[in-house]
Design brief:
single chain; about 210 residues; mainly alpha; Arp2/3 complex 21 kDa subunit ARPC3; two-stranded antiparallel ribbon; 6 helices; globular
């Protein structure tokens, strides 16, 4: 049986390892997936989901905040698509188009909510005695979708006209383009989030339970 201090040390070590993986997928090409559309599909939410399920909702939200910070740094200093950078950072300008405080909301809030939703859903599904595959997988899928809808919804609400202009499309077509992005980028990310949650978290949680006991 671990003492509270030793258990806390182990938890911090586990969080640090997941944070290192989060930095790796955010700052290197290893975290990018081939996708259709202007928003790049990434693996950035996978460590957040895993953290939320393994270490709890609070740790997941904290990892989401780090994911938002890493995303903010990338889009500010080395944007993968300069045309889109203004929706994620107020410090990048493209002619007369620039971001604002809502850029920070889009960059941080959906990522934090990934941890909150994934952790909360997993706890709820576990209490309801759902089958482990469904509990892990659905928690990962819902966590990932929160980021997708949060980011794209924020873009539509706060930067819709500017975003459509940059894309060279009419605002009336923007909702359709966002829907296409959800299908081509968001759904694959959600599937990966669900598979990773089950494949990684299920065996690790079993090990962690034995280790604590």
């Amino acid at each position: 049986m671990k003492t509270p201090l030793k258990r806390k040390t182990v938890t911090l070590t586990q969080f640090a390892m997941l944070l290192a993986i989060e930095a790796l997928v955010c700052f290197t090409p290893l975290g990018s997936l081939p996708a259709v559309g202007p928003i790049v599909a990434t693996l950035g939410m996978v460590p957040v989901i895993i953290t939320a399920i393994l270490l709890g909702t609070g740790a997941g939200a904290c990892m989401g905040a780090f994911a938002g910070l890493f995303s903010f740094l990338v889009w500010t200093f080395a944007p993968p698509n300069p045309l889109m950078a203004f929706v994620f950072t107020p410090f990048y300008m493209l002619g007369a188009t620039h971001g604002n405080v809502w850029s920070l909301v889009i960059c941080f809030v959906p990522r934090i909510l990934v941890g909150v939703v994934a952790g909360t859903c997993f706890k709820l599904f576990t209490r309801l005695n759902w089958k482990s595959g469904l509990a892990y997988g659905l928690s990962g899928v819902l966590g990932s979708l929160v980021n997708t809808f949060g980011v794209l919804g924020g873009i539509y609400v706060f930067f819709g006209h500017s975003y459509a202009t940059v894309l060279g499309k009419g605002f009336d077509l923007l909702l359709g383009l966002i829907g296409l992005t959800i299908l081509t980028n968001g759904i694959p990310e959600a599937i990966i989030g669900g598979v990773a949650a089950y494949a990684v978290c299920r065996p690790l949680r079993r090990y962690m339970k034995r280790d604590i006991g």
